[in-house]
Design a protein that fits this description.
Structural class: alpha/beta
Strand content: 15-25%
CATH architecture of the largest domain: 3-Layer(aba) Sandwich
Oligomer: single chain
CATH class of the largest domain: Alpha Beta
CATH topology of the largest domain: Rossmann fold
Distance between the termini: 58 Å
Radius of gyration: 21 Å
Bound molecules: S-adenosylmethionine
Number of strands: 9
Length: 297
Amino acid sequence: MKEPILGNPQNTIRILQKYQFTFQKKYGQNFLIDTHVLDKIIRSAEIGKEDMVLEIGPGIGTMTQYLACSARKVVAVEIDAELIPILEDTLQEYDNVRIIQADILKVDLVKLVEEENEGRPIKVVANLPYYITTPIIMGLFENHVPVKSITVMVQKEVADRMQTGPGTKDYGALSLAVQYYAKPYLVANVPPNCFMPRPKVGSAVIRLERHESLPVSVKEEKLLFQIIRASFNQRRKTLANGLKNAAELNFSKEEIETAIAKLGKPAGVRGETLSLEEFARLSDFLWESDKASGKNE
Ligand code: SAM
């Protein structure tokens, strides 16, 4: 298989000029032009010859070339139709790559993994479009796509949010969702000059390794995440008010106050001070009060 050539900035410029490609800001296009960063992503993703890799947003195929050399198969989903002829050119020598032109948020990934990997867990590797990082990652987890690990380039601030705990300004629904499903590891911080065009913010590569067994157990996962989202929707409000005002939830003031008291917290507690374990207990208390009132029969 051909050695990857696109990590080098001159080769990237040559391809962009050949196709007179214009970057689309709305698609979050910042292409990687640093071979060290590419090598580091591939190494930390620990891709072997048995692996199927899903790449989200291959761009002109830079990382795809590296992935194709290490994996058994690469499926790359790209939204921008202008990039498809470029990808057909840059990946023509790699016969283990399938390119799909689609919006990743509209692809049935469980079905794709079934078709392409007989339902066995895949690895996700991507330099993500920053405008949809959270829905992509939450979608992979909440839809129960069989994934072994997710190694992605994200905005530095998002990487911080994924790794932080209660009581910090970055702590929120994403921190809790990531930590519920996976263990996050920071692989590298990546400065803007490793991309073309340069993003305004710093970036980081993060690896999320799926837990073999979940760190907390709850009666109903959907309810846990509804509660978490409601608690962070109105950051400056108390937890009780956040839960009361949530359109997704239907608990009375008394049910909420009783559940918070059972948790051993004061009535005015804020959601951002609760750990994942405490959210899980709160979720079960509320689930039980629903059961007692016959709502979840
Ligand atoms: N992987 C390439 C690289 O590292 O050079 C490009 C990364 S660039 C940050 C993000 C890529 O995601 C772009 O190619 C962009 O067109 C694509 N993209 C944006 N939104 C998308 C979506 N909803 N579905 C699939 N791809 C998308």
